Amino acid sequence: MSEKEVIVSMKDICKSFPGVKALDHVQFELRSGEVMALLGENGAGKSTLMKILSGVYTRDSGSLEIFGKEYGDLTPKQAQEAGVAIIHQELNMCKHLSVAENMFLGREKTKGIVLANGDMEAEASRILNDLKIDIDPKQVVGELPVSKQQMVEIAKALSVNARILIMDEPTSALTAKEIDDLFRIIKDLRSKGCGIVYISHRLEELQHIVDRVTIMRDGQYITSMNFKDTTMDQIIANMVGREIKEQFPRESCKKGEKILEVKGLNAGRMVRDINFALYEGEIVGFAGLMGAGRTETTRAIFGVDPKDSGEIILEGKTLKITNPNDAIRAGIVLAPEDRKKDGLCTKLSIRHNIALPNLDILCNKLGVVSSKKEDQMCDEAVENLKIKTPNVDINAGNLSGGNQQKVVVGKWLARNSKVVIFDEPTRGIDVAAKVEIYNLMNELKKQGIAVMFVSSEMPEVMGIADRIIVMCDGRITGELDARNTTQNEILTLATQFEKKIAANA
Fold first, then answer.
1. Domain named ABC transporter: which ranges (predicted)?
2. What is the structure's pLDDT at 497?
């Protein structure tokens, strides 16, 4: 197989959904033995195009060739037989089944009428070992962290001898070491002639693995180029249609009164003796490695998880928070890490997602919703956050990941909130949408609202936060001034517990 061989050719692809033209005469080409980065803002049509290639969606018009063979309406099975495998951003696995059972789902090995579990586990173990992935094939998938589930998806794709592998935001839930492992796997697959489509909003990753770049904007093809022949500024300008002057806009505000204080907070194994305070006019970033306890801390403060002990003091008054309703009424709100699972009702409209947590504001004394207030609230959210949608009656599940994140944030803006907690607010969203979220944080800060946010991206924490609190193994290990620190200082505090274990070994 020639390295220059075109293995995927898509021309004039069109696809529309109710009220939305997702793809408008798009072209795309993938060659064997290359990593092609497919880039664009949220809603650009990247995932839709790849779902057509993998048989999830049918195209309205246009031509599709895989390994020189022209295909009509592809089914997922036909795409798989043609050598195409896709790893979706939102993992699609049977959580109650084992790793091996997930890998062979729909093509189980049998001995007569009995499942050959031993054969499937042995084959799964061989594939995982080849990839140098340390996972027991008998392990129930639902018991694995998201990062390990991601690796199982890759192993599953390779178990069907995929020669075209589509990765949609594959590093969004991985640690630095796991990202290194993923890049090693990608390079190995590329050397074997596999064509890889890599969709990511983490542009800094591209330099490590990417050969070529295809850029889309607003459902249209913009350009393709060799990665080595372009710059990051050119890529961003093509993605957003304008120059992004400042990736991390920071607003300077005078530090005001103490708003929130957390004292001696304990909640399970991952939240141990947490003490910190939030003030007016500042953004506090929580940094640390995956599993450090940052998300668990936000959940305990917001009342999602039960607290074992500790105090939460808002404007000098100790609160009794036993559930999220208590926190919301007090003025503490949370935009959670898993937006689809915890932050949105994907089968409801944007309107209803924004209105639901604000019914106490929208209803009169008789419990009747004011349509005028609801319209105003929704219109302001769409305008202020630049949510890309034809109208607010579109189901939230039909929006791109970044626009879904904006709806999650938007529903809290109508409240007179005093503390806004963001957990990984920019995960899976594009560079322009990230800047909009940062500007939103800055606007809240200027209004005197205390802002706390969790992020696994150290440049983001250093670029937006005023103070950085670092966690490791459920504890706070240090506090830093964001303007006068380095990634090495943060990483040293984030690995404190691991180094202690190593020293005692």
1. 8-243, 254-498
2. 54
